[in-house]
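Figure 6 in text form: structure in, sequence out.
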């Protein structure tokens, strides 16, 4: 059914399949397929090659293991670059990653992503850029940057804002979505309880000539026939609470209301409360403001332009190095976040505000009295 093609990267498998399909597989199982500069650069090359190749009809994108599609960027490597005064190399990673995300958002050919296992951070950025986003009962999706002192990037500035209070809550707490939750808020387009290879065989066998409306319609119809709804998950069971604690009017209200869920009946809500309470206050403030900015419809170009500048600011902030240390290096789970004068946007960010060349963002900083 498939044959290996051009070698792009030692941690990527790229294969031909019949009917104009191509298969791209992330292959870094030990790191849950984490992204680094070399991989995102190689992925850009692959997708650009396929974009311009008339023999390519559609693309299947997954990983070699069921444990994760992609657990995010290799933040340990980024932290080391910052420590070694090579932050400019880290900047290049974000630049290439966002160029890849942008390419996929604007892609003219159908991409099907198999999002089994962990789909987080940079992995969720890739996932959300594809038109067909498949999850399984074993999928776990999140933007967990609150835990490491980064912030929800890779387009989350827009795709969290697009989802209103649920998006704001997700960004502030890093809460993990099951397949049910991901489908309910439109992160996933289909839920499949069928084995991956069975789904792959069915889409590769599509007879394009049966679909005069085009390849996107053909794939959608085929995946719809395999979609299997699942029962409500913790997200759907908590929607009323989410809307009451995330009003998006006052940062302090939202922050304290979420932290106040520490005695909620739901394990999921209690975990959300703990994540925010123990997470980086700078990340929380930044996430809340980016959600405000993203609520006005922005082009993906504008989103990634702003995120590029915010990321350069954020990795140089001490909370990033400290957060990755506590969570992923020493694993003591006891980060010493930078102190702030008061629990307010100005109190947290005012000493070193994330000013950019994007005037609409700077206007948000002024509107909320950060600058």
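Output sequence:
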């Amino acid at each position: 059914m498939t044959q290996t093609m051009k070698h792009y990267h030692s941690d990527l498998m790229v294969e031909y399949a019949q009917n104009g399909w191509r298969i791209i597989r992330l292959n870094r199982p030990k790191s849950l397929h984490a992204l680094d500069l070399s991989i995102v650069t190689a992925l850009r090359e692959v997708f650009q090659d396929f974009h311009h190749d008339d023999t390519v009809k559609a693309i299947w994108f997954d990983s070699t293991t069921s444990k994760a599609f992609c657990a995010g960027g290799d933040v340990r490597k980024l932290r080391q670059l910052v420590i070694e005064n090579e932050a400019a190399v880290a900047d290049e990673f974000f630049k290439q990653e966002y160029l890849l995300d942008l390419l996929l958002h604007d892609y003219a050919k159908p991409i099907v992503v198999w999002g089994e296992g962990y789909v987080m951070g940079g992995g969720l950025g890739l996932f959300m850029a594809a038109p067909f986003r498949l999850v399984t009962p074993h999928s776990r999706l999140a933007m967990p940057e609150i835990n490491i002192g980064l912030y929800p990037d890779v387009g989350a500035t827009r795709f969290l804002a697009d989802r209103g209070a649920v998006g704001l809550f997700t960004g502030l707490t890093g809460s993990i979505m099951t397949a049910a939750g991901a489908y309910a808020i439109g992160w996933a387009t289909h839920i499949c309880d069928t084995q991956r290879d069975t789904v792959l065989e069915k889409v590769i066998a599509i007879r394009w000539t049966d679909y005069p409306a085009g390849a996107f319609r053909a794939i959608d119809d085929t995946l719809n026939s395999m979609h299997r709804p699942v029962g409500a998950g913790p997200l759907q069971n908590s929607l009323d609470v989410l809307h009451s604690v995330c009003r998006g009017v006052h940062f302090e209200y939202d922050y304290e209301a979420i932290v106040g869920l520490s005695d909620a009946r739901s394990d999921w809500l209690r975990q959300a409360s703990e994540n925010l309470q123990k997470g980086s206050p700078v990340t929380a403030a930044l996430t809340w403001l980016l959600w405000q900015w993203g609520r006005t419809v922005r082009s993906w170009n504008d989103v990634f332009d702003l995120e590029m500048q915010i990321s350069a600011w954020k990795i140089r902030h001490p909370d990033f190095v400290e957060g990755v240390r506590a969570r992923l290096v020493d694993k003591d789970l006891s980060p010493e976040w930078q102190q702030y004068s008061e629990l307010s946007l100005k109190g947290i960010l005012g000493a070193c505000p994330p000013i950019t060349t994007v005037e609409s963002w700077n206007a948000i900083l002024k509107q909320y009295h950060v600058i």
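Caption detail: The first helix runs from residue 37 to 51.
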